[in-house]
Amino acid sequence: MAAMCMPAMMDAAPRKVLVLAERGGLHEGFTKAGLEWLESQKERFDMELTVLNSALDIPKGELRKYNLVLQLNYPPYAWSEAAQEDMQRYIDRGTGGYIGFHHASLLGEFDGYQMWGWFSDFLGKIRYKNYIAETCDATVRVEDRQHPVMKGVTESFVVADDEWYTYETSPRPNVHVLANVDEGSYTIETDIKMGDHPVIWTNPKKKARNVYFQFGHSKLLFQNPAFIKILENALRWTLKEKKGLL
Fold first, then answer.
1. Is residue 162 in a domain?
2. What is the C-alpha separation between 82 and 185, in angstroms, rounded?
3. What is the total count of domains within the chain?
4. What range defines the domain where residue 142 resides?
5. Using one digit for the tens of pLDDT, what is the confidence trace for 176-231?
6. pTM for this structure?
7. Of 121, 196, 211, 239, which residue has the fewest beta carbons closer than 10 angstroms?
8. Domain holding 147: CATH number?
9. Cα–Cα distance for residue pair 85/87, rounded to 1 Å
10. For the stretch 135-161, what's the b/e string if a residue is b when 16 or more beta carbons lie within 10 angstroms of its beta carbon?
11. Number of C-alpha atoms within 13 angstroms, CB side, residue 133?
């Protein structure tokens, strides 16, 4: 008797991704391009996207529904208390993954909000100090090419037309730095420098897989092959890539 054919296993449900997107203002170009890119890649990366433009109305317990929180330039303030508490549990317990961009490290007292101490600790015990308002190009140097987020990335690459934040202290002692910016490569003259200037890092002390990108101002990033490679790697890593994912 011929062996019976077993039905193929059905694929698991798509991974749910919450995108906190800051709209309008100076970062709109990057945010718009980022949302378009994520939408174009959601089938490839097996994602179901939920896009929110505010964290003030996120109901209690909402975050645990998601496999990944992606902070697309949304700042680290203007969150409800319930959303803050949920975010802390989400990251500290490793409920899902985290990717943050640029404005996510605007840590301090802004728009009438106090600094969120836990978030500052999460991003390396940093406080925002200044930025290069006149955007410029700069060379980013990879420090850890063995990390999954940096897999297959060249030793250095240029990021065009971006803002470069500085902090009161470097996050380096409190995080694992994946890349830094060569401040000598800025295409403008400026005294706004840190010396040691990390721009991609992860906090391995947290159970959640997490990575923060300090750049994220210009839509030109989505025309940068190195950045696309790193973002693809970051999605695979934070979503805990499943078998068969391209």
1. yes
2. 43
3. 1
4. 15-238
5. 999 999 999 999 999 999 999 999 999 999 999 999 999 999 999 999 999 999 99
6. 0.92
7. 196
8. 3.40.50.880
9. 5
10. bbebbbebbeeebbbbeebeeebebbb
11. 2
